[in-house]
Amino acid sequence: MSETEQTAQAKPERKKVILSGIQPTGVFTLGNYLGAVRNWGQMQEDYNCAYFIANLHAITVRQDPAKLRQQTVASYALLLACGVDPQKSLTFIQSHVPTHAELSWVLSCYTQFGELSRMTQFKDKSAKHPENVNVGLFTYPDLMAADILLYQADLVPVGADQKQHLEITRDIATRFNNVHGNVFTVPEPYIPKLGARIMSLADPTKKMSKSDENQNAFVSILDAPETIVKKFKRAVTDSEAEVVYREGKDGINNLMGIYSAVTGDSFETIQRDFAGRGYGDFKQAVGEAVAEHLRPVRENFDRLMKDKAYLEQCYTEGAKKALAISSRTLEKVYHKVGFTKPIR
Ligand code: TRP
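Above: inputs. Below: predicted complex with tryptophan.
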């Protein structure tokens, strides 16, 4: 075999890099779980995954420091509880890795005031907190762009609320590359193949959201089994009594979707099994099935939270790896803009 053939053969195909950040403010809902999170375990086989807790982003709104510290570690534990393996995926806490803030500054010098002013999240959040329209809230997209570009991410899973931030990341990366040559991979949005869209239990025309003021509108993946059953019993349905999937029956359609997602039963099977039985029975069954489905996550989480030393070991190693990988990009950027190498 010639040398070139050998190298061609030995070189494994590079897996694509997927990166996602999660704010440490609140627990995933059943909607997040069924729609995305439960695929993460599988995704780490197909991609090089990076997940981090975006605590730098969190302080763009006022936080209680003790609570933020606690929630940051809890959110990290939740990632692992949901099946992310720190041996396979890069898992870290954003504030542990200084390159994020450093690249963010450079990128802010390649971002126009006008384009940041047009970000809908900035406009919404400033309207919501008129007493604290801070500059961090304004430059939030530059920090997010830094998170993504440091790891040369190919794909970023984004919900509707973050789409605009990915767009501006692409714009900034392209602009920088046009001036300085190919430094950054321009990321694409990642849209999961299958992902159930789970609606609010209180208003099934709205998406389930953890920021809903009505606690009964959403199920958090760490809710106690009794709480889950209770929330499903209160779920808004309709005035009929037939468990069938039909246009206009938003509440029942949502419950059937959830039941199907956690049991694997088809809609036909569900309709047959619940024919002639009332909504009460069905809601009870959905609640119990969901509580059971989430049991492993709850148990993993409780176990991890009792082992702070293990968590610390995981996020310390994660931060070291993240620093090493992201430093390669930062050093290139520093060189391009005319800085000497960062000194650590
Ligand atoms: N802004 C995202 C959110 O609020 C969190 C986030 C920060 C993120 N940095 C990221 C998501 C990078 C994807 C990629 O949900």
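The mean pLDDT is 94.
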